[in-house]
UniProtKB/TrEMBL annotation:
<feature type="transmembrane region" description="Helical">
    <location>
        <begin position="38"/>
        <end position="56"/>
    </location>
</feature>
<dbReference type="InterPro" id="IPR051684">
    <property type="entry name" value="Electron_Trans/Redox"/>
</dbReference>
<feature type="domain" description="4Fe-4S ferredoxin-type">
    <location>
        <begin position="248"/>
        <end position="276"/>
    </location>
</feature>
<keyword id="KW-0479">Metal-binding</keyword>
<keyword id="KW-0408">Iron</keyword>
<dbReference type="InterPro" id="IPR013783">
    <property type="entry name" value="Ig-like_fold"/>
</dbReference>
<keyword id="KW-0813">Transport</keyword>
<dbReference type="GO" id="GO:0005886">
    <property type="term" value="C:plasma membrane"/>
</dbReference>
<keyword id="KW-1133">Transmembrane helix</keyword>
<keyword id="KW-0812">Transmembrane</keyword>
<protein>
    <submittedName>
        <fullName>Cytochrome c oxidase accessory protein CcoG</fullName>
    </submittedName>
</protein>
<keyword id="KW-0249">Electron transport</keyword>
<feature type="transmembrane region" description="Helical">
    <location>
        <begin position="76"/>
        <end position="102"/>
    </location>
</feature>
<dbReference type="InterPro" id="IPR017896">
    <property type="entry name" value="4Fe4S_Fe-S-bd"/>
</dbReference>
<dbReference type="GO" id="GO:0051539">
    <property type="term" value="F:4 iron, 4 sulfur cluster binding"/>
</dbReference>
<feature type="transmembrane region" description="Helical">
    <location>
        <begin position="159"/>
        <end position="177"/>
    </location>
</feature>
<dbReference type="GO" id="GO:0046872">
    <property type="term" value="F:metal ion binding"/>
</dbReference>
Amino acid sequence: MSIAELSFRDRPINMDAKGSRKWVYAKKPSGKWYRRRTLFSWFLLLFWIAVPWIRVNENPLILLDIANRKFIIFGAIFWAQDTFILALLMLSFVLFIVLFTVTFGRIWCGWACPQTIFLEMIFRKIEYLIEGDYKKRYKLDQGPWTGEKILKKTLKHGLFIFIAIAMTNVFLMWFTGSERWLELVREPFRQNLSGFIVMIVVSGVFYWIYSFFREQVCTMVCPYGRMQGVLLDSNSIVVSYDYKRGEPRGTKNEGDCIDCHQCVSVCPTGIDIRNGTQLECINCTACIDQCNKIMHITNKAPGLIRYASEKTIKEGHASVWNTRNRAYSVVLLVIFSFFIYTFVSRPVIETTILRTPGLLFQENGDNTISNVYNLTIVNKTHEEMPLEIRLLSHKGRIQMAGNSMIVKDQGRFESTFILFIPKEELNSDKTEVEFGIFNNNELIETYKATFVSP
């Protein structure tokens, strides 16, 4: 190959030698794999829209309430006290992505990544519908501003803005819940001006990404494409060109590749898959469908471009499992099992008892010393719990600020109490005391705190 032919390794394909943007005009894809991706994308989009409205035990299926430090994942509620459990879940997810990438390449990017789904299955489909396929779009963009061009661009970008705003509001429901979102919609926007401004800004970012920045998110911003250089090996299944079957290229040569460049014309990032694995490739399968059409026309077997590993093409070796896959699988299994154990065995309530800041001990006339404490109890069950706090380690009494301790299901109880301990029970200026939280006279949790005395 000449140096010019190898320039694809020097810079992203959508950038010229001076570093300027080159717009990619991809041909509208069609075929078996594209239909499969479309159906899968519809399922993911429906799931994304429906999640805030689905209820499990009167709670959203998924809620990421960062402001209140409350997270609901498939009906299971995690509070700030469950950070360790959430960290295990996130680590398991990251390891799953790593294992999946090692085995199946960037299939996440082509099939499940929100950037790909929104761009390819929503925004590009609108673009194809209004402006036509790649040749018509290129001609329209390069041509003068006629009435037809103004009409088409206005209609397209108007729909893009509307969809960007709708996307922002759906994402908002994932963080606030559908009930709170409905309240925000009904209220005058002046009451939530800061939130309204944030929504407009985020919508503007979405509009800019899918109208102008587009595939550069994958080729220039997303770190996942660069990770594949570390994660992939010769056993990883990726969208591959069968060079043993396709070379030498050309209609008069012996190889099956007729060098028609149809695989390039349909690629949303503009690469030539025949050059091998590249960071711009998102494994979207568009080139597979297009090449199979050419193979059908030329009466050759499909699969010149297909899902395959380097070892499969070179040696006919089809197995994807190796020592690295097995090692990742074992680590993932251990960590996820630990997550399941910690989740199942976590206490039904989470108690925090801390001395009230800024207050010292109090000497009382009945020969007792008192300290004031702040009490917080989080109920992690779906049942209302009447609770009682008792002192386990010493003789003494507790005076609550209220008359009862009833914690609603998935609720939080906060109160203040005073602990009185006789002086003869105290041997130092700082004494460790232990409290017990009881539900119907059954001890369900203990908590230790410090008692300060003269």
